[in-house]
Design a protein that fits this description.
- The complex is a heterodimer of chains A (700) and B (395).
- Chain A has 25 helices and 11 strands.
- Chain A has 700 residues and is α/β, with parallel strands linked by helices.
- In chain B, strand 6 (162-165) and strand 7 (169-172) form a beta hairpin.
- With 395 residues, chain B is of the alpha/beta class.
- In chain B, helix 1 (4-27) crosses helix 12.
- Chain B has helices at 4-27, 52-67, 121-129, 173-185, 241-251, 261-266, 270-273, 294-297, 308-311, 331-337, 340-351, 355-369, 372-394; strands at residues 37-44, 75-79, 114-115, 148-155, 158-159, 162-165, 169-172, 191-197, 213-217, 227-231, 236-240, 278-280.
- Residues 17-32 and 316-352 of chain B have low confidence and may be disordered.
- Classes of the chains: A alpha/beta (700), B alpha/beta (395).
């Protein structure tokens, strides 16, 4: 008896405890309207505050020790760089055959005493592979039927083996250049690359091998670097047909250089490798001539919003600013720099933060208006490029192999034709790159100490994942609450068999998602058809998709009416919440932007014909619903963004096709998000908006 | 000088004691409570290239104590030893502690006892407490005794009451205190100087409670210890501030100098050190101004000069022992050479409980009060006498 009683009391205790949680939950659900308004507002405000919450970057890995050693890059190396630059310009201009520069580079590399070889490949266009998202290794063996001779690309590669190193790790230096149309800045960047390479060939402190890839970017630098990396990481079979074909092409095309090839022997095409890559630097020079100081732009975004370790950016920034006196820039969206509302917001925040500081001096949310504007513009660009999922340079190819890489783009303060400007510029850039390489050389493990998930709001300020997840979490928190509220209110009002009604709604939601998935795969079929222009592709895609949608609705008609719009909305919201949560793990920026569009739409949407008291309230609801429905439609959103950010020109339906093409050709998860989560959610919202509440039918 | 009668009585007492303590003498090779040997345990607890300075610290101190007279066989050197042949080292097989590169610390005579991954907390504790596997060679053991002065130097990365060993384990202040306590119990030292150069070094001494321990740390709780300077050629910091100024102090000294510990301690300037050096002296009895640094960092032993060995028994001594202390004029020399005797008189009462100690004290007293030569003769005579008696008894 006693035992039983005890059991009873414990059960009671449990009940009362769980009751508390339930009561809290019920409280939230009961006030779901208020909760969703508060959460949405808080989420968006917190998101706008991100530039204020940004922290200063710091070098997290002890082993890096950037700038602790004096650079050895001297005027001798500047002379080397100048010599090669002149040689390239002279020889390259004389024979624009595409391989002259590679041959010249190889001569230089061999003269320095390093290993060298030619890397050769035939570029192929990126095609739509529906099953190849997230896997960057498209097979290299599917040859085009007739590889046209002369379309192959020849890269010169040099390897320095660390004299006392174990040969297990390597640092890669990439200098892209265009062999068909070699500009002066291309030649200068090759010159810098070579001068660093020749310096490193006789230093005694190397612990990692150095690989220098002079990448011919005639067909895009990413393609070249990616193909080289594929060969580096994939097995090579000596009897491979493609290579034989390439060789034949090579010798046919260049009969005048045949002697040279014979002297060098076939050995010069044997692919050589060094260890696993610790880091890669892509080095570029652009001749912009608009700054008062030499400047360095850092590009870091790789595919699907992946970033290199923050430490790599930190050391480049630290050395550039504190050692070489360069101005460091990272991308920013000009619209935000000029927008008056951002400036106004910045001034307001400045007042608030100074007030807050007066209240408690320990709070470090001190920001000036100008800082806020710049931070917002930089953050916007950071989020945009991550959300797009398209790499901002050839460093993106390295990220596919989990190698940390950045593009360092140098621009001199005035024209490089000036001797003094050029040598000072070469000295600075050379020392910076030497410093970065020496710092990475000190590394004992892979980059792991600092962040991989972050946004930059300035070259020396970052917002880490721990901070930016909070606004997102707050923003999507009302979704499950509202779903629960809708579900419970519907269940309470209807009769007993209503408890299984949600399955009907789930069926509708599932079929719409299925339709979206089919739509996302349609381009693969359409690409087989001989449709000429992008606009015809786009219209065909839209037409087929709408047809399928109508068919789906014909099937679903009865069940979509049966279940009632509340249940439909509740299930749709659940699906959207799951989709957004999943997407936030895959590519946070996409999920954040998507959530800012989808969440208000999902929460607000109501049938247009629903009776509400008050004309004003109804009008407000209608207009807000309509506005959100327009804004959240992906093509409309693209149009709005295009006009807002100042891209002029006539808008063509083909643009959407091209835009989608960019996304899938870069294996961007944003494509999947748009078509698998965003689009079905929008269609369902539209369905709810046009829901026939009083019985008159209306099709979506 | 003592009169004849008491000295004779003493001699009889000596003889008497001797008879009882022969087995003890045979078992022990040392003289209790007298400082007669010096050991050093030098530990660098970090590894990896960016901790170059810790190895340079340890090697510099190794060089200094060797220069000041501790022989290699009495130095236990624990080093990760991955700097000299590190591929990032501009100067292969050389280690420097200064950017002028004048002094290669990794010269010909560096005997590293525990190398690389052997530098663990376990091995460190084993060295201190003397609990080794039987297979461990004598050269890797701390074979100190109750007359040893031990210098324990440690450097690395530390925190509040711990010291990190090679990024994989920690030595806590409790562990250190426990090891020292065991050493005291096992009479493995007479005096112990613990010198630690690490962040928050002072906290490492919090748990110590064994008498005879003197501790110096480079920084107080909550303070960091900083490196002294960067060698922009090698690309790393090469020495820590505390060790740098310690070495600067010792560079001015030689084996025979008589600078006291307090002068070493006073040489630390918190401004140049960028941290506050901390001394824990409450466990240490002797006044620091009278303790020469060489009693830990050197190995200058007192030599008891006897002519008998050269002259034989028959010839009476002609000269008084000159190195023996006894009057004020020799004070400086005594400090430098053998500072223990003065204090031992005070300690006598404590140590009387042990018969062995009593006889040693007596012996010491003899040394102080009478002629060493005379004592030696009595002792020798007694031994002959005992030998004859024992042979006679056996026969």
């Amino acid at each position: 008896m006693a035992v039983k009683e005890e059991g009873d009391t414990s059960q009671q205790g449990k009940k009362s405890r769980s009751r508390l949680i339930l009561r809290l939950g019920a409280l939230l659900v009961a006030h779901s309207g208020l909760v969703s308004v508060v959460c949405c507002a808080a989420g968006i405000i917190a998101f706008i505050l991100l530039p204020v919450l940004a922290n200063n970057t710091y070098i997290s890995e002890n082993a890096l020790m950037p700038g602790s050693a004096d650079p050895a890059f001297s005027s001798q190396e500047v002379l080397d760089a100048n010599r090669l630059t002149m040689d390239i310009l002279n020889r390259g201009a004389a024979k624009a055959s595409g391989i002259e520069i590679a041959k010249l580079l190889r001569e230089y590399i061999v003269a320095v005493g390093a290993e060298s070889y030619y890397h050769k490949f035939v570029p192929r266009a990126n095609k739509f592979h529906p099953l190849h998202f997230f896997s960057s290794t498209t097979d290299n063996l599917d040859l085009p039927a007739n590889p046209s001779c002369g379309s192959f690309i020849l890269n010169a590669v040099g390897i320095i083996r660390a004299p006392r190193g174990d040969g297990k790790e390597t640092i890669v230096l990439v200098t892209p250049y265009n062999s068909q149309n070699t500009t002066y800045s291309d030649a200068v960047s090759l010159g810098i690359g070579f001068s660093i390479f020749s310096l490193l060939s006789h230093v005694t402190w190397l612990a990692k091998d150095i690989v220098w890839l002079a990448a011919d970017s005639r067909y895009g630098e990413y393609t070249t670097v990616d193909s080289w990396l594929k060969d580096y990481h994939g097995p090579a079979f000596p009897g491979e047909t493609s290579r034989i074909v390439d060789d034949a092409c090579f010798e046919e095309n260049n009969s005048d250089s045949l002697d040279h090839i014979k002297v060098e022997g076939h050995n010069s095409y044997v692919y050589k490798r060094a260890g696993t890559m610790a880091a890669a630097l892509v080095l570029k020079v652009v001749d912009k001539k608009e700054e008062e100081r030499d400047s360095l732009s850092i590009y870091a975004e790789a595919s699907n919003g992946q970033m290199p370790n923050l430490d790599l950016i930190n050391i480049a920034h630290y050395l550039a600013v504190h050692r070489q006196g360069l101005r460091v820039k990272i991308g920013s969206i000009i619209y935000f720099l000029k927008a008056s509302w951002v400036k106004l917001l910045g001034e307001m925040l400045q007042h608030i933060t100074t007030l807050a500081k007066r209240l408690n001096p320990k709070w470090k949310f001190d920001i000036t208006s100008a800082d806020y504007v710049e931070g917002t513009a930089t953050l916007a660009s950071s989020i945009y490029y991550q959300a797009l999922g398209v790499p901002t340079g050839s460093h993106g190819a390295f990220r596919n192999y989990q190698v940390d890489a950045v593009t360092l783009e140098f621009s001199p303060r005035s024209s490089l034709n000036n001797e003094n400007v050029r040598s000072a510029f070469l000295l600075k850039t050379g020392r910076l790159i030497e410093g970065v390489i020496r710092s990475v050389n000190n590394l004992l493990e892979k980059f792991h100490q600092s962040f991989f998930l972050y946004f930059l709001t300035a070259p020396h300020k970052y917002v880490s994942v721990g901070i930016y997840m909070i606004p997102f979490g707050i923003l999507i928190a009302p979704l499950p609450i509202v779903a629960a509220a809708l579900f419970s209110s519907n269940n309470g009002s209807s009769n007993k068999d209503g408890s299984w009604k949600w399955l009907q709604a789930a069926k509708v939601v599932f079929l719409i998602h299925l339709w979206a998935m089919i739509t996302s795969l349609l381009p693969y079929v359409l690409l087989q058809l001989p449709l000429g222009t992008p606009s015809s592709f786009a219209s065909a895609w839209a037409a087929v998709a709408i047809c399928f949608l109508l068919i789906t609705y014909l099937i679903l008609w009865s069940s979509s009416i049966d279940c009632g719009w509340e249940l439909l909305k509740s299930v749709m919201i659940v699906a959207a919440a799951i989709g957004l949560s999943l997407m936030s793990v895959i590519n946070f920026s996409t999920a954040q932007i998507g959530a800012m569009l989808i969440v208000p739409m999902c929460l607000l949407v109501k049938p247009a014909r629903k009776q509400t008291q008050g004309v004003f309230a109804k009008a407000l609801m209608l207009t807000s619903n309509l506005a959100l429905l327009v804004v959240a439609f992906p093509p409309a959103a693209l149009l709005i963004a295009k006009t807002l950010f100042g891209a002029s020109g006539n808008i063509d339906i083909g643009d959407f096709w091209e835009w989608a093409q960019i996304l899938w050709s870069w294996n961007s998860a944003t494509y999947m998000y748009l078509l698998w989560i965003h689009l079905p959610c929008w269609v369902l919202c539209l369905n709810i908006f046009l829901y026939p509440c009083i019985g008159s039918s209306s099709k979506a | 000088m003592a009169t004849r009668d008491p000295s004779m009585i003493c001699c009889f007492r000596l003889l008497f004691l001797l008879l009882f303590s022969v087995p003890l003498i045979a078992s022990s090779s040392s003289w209790a409570s007298m400082h007669h040997n010096n050991w050093a345990v030098l530990v660098c607890t970090s590894r990896y290239w960016f901790n170059y300075r810790h190895m340079a610290n340890t090697l510099s101190l190794y060089r200094t104590v060797k220069r000041l007279g501790i022989p290699d066989e009495r130095i236990i050197l624990m080093l990760a030893d991955d700097m000299a042949c590190n591929m990032r080292n501009n100067y292969p097989a050389q280690v420097f502690n200064n950017e002028n590169h004048q002094l290669n610390l990794y010269g010909d005579n560096v005997e590293v006892d525990y190398r690389g991954y052997e530098v663990t907390v376990e091995n460190f504790m084993r060295v201190l407490t003397g609990r080794h596997d039987p297979a461990v060679p004598r050269s890797k053991r701390l074979l100190s005794d109750e007359g040893s002065h031990i210098l324990l130097y440690m450097t690395g990365h530390g925190g509040d009451e711990f010291l990190k060993f090679q990024d994989s384990e920690e030595l806590q202040s409790h562990d250190l205190a426990d090891a020292v306590k065991q050493m005291k119990e096992k009479n493995r030292f007479k005096e112990l100087l613990i010198m630690v150069d690490t962040c928050q070094a002072a906290t490492l001494f919090n748990q110590l409670q064994s008498p005879g321990v003197l501790a110096i740390g480079s920084s107080m709780k909550g303070e960091n210890s900083y490196s002294h300077h960067l060698d922009s050629d090698i690309g790393v910091s090469v020495v820590d501030r505390f060790t740098y100024y310690t070495l600067a102090f010792f560079e001015k000294l030689n084996m025979y100098s008589n600078a006291s510990l307090s002068s070493l301690f006073n040489s630390y300037n918190p401004r140049t050190l960028m941290s506050t050096a901390y001394y824990r002296m409450d466990l240490y009895q002797r006044p620091l101004p009278e303790v020469p640094v060489t009693s830990f960092f050197g190995s200058v032993m007192k030599t008891i000069h006897t002519d008998a060995a050269y002259m034989g028994l028959s010839i009476p001594p002609k000269t008084e022992a000159q190195f023996l202390p006894g009057d004020g004029g020799n004070h400086q020399l005594r400090i430098e050479n053998e500072p223990d005797l003065e204090k031992d008189g005070n300690k006598q009462t404590k140590e009387l409980h042990c018969i062995y100690h009593e006889w040693l004290n007596l012996l010491q007293e003899r040394f102080e009060n009478t002629d060493a030569e005379l004592l030696f003769r009595y002792g020798f005579g007694t031994m002959v006498f005992l030998l004859t008696i024992s042979t006679w008894l056996l026969a």
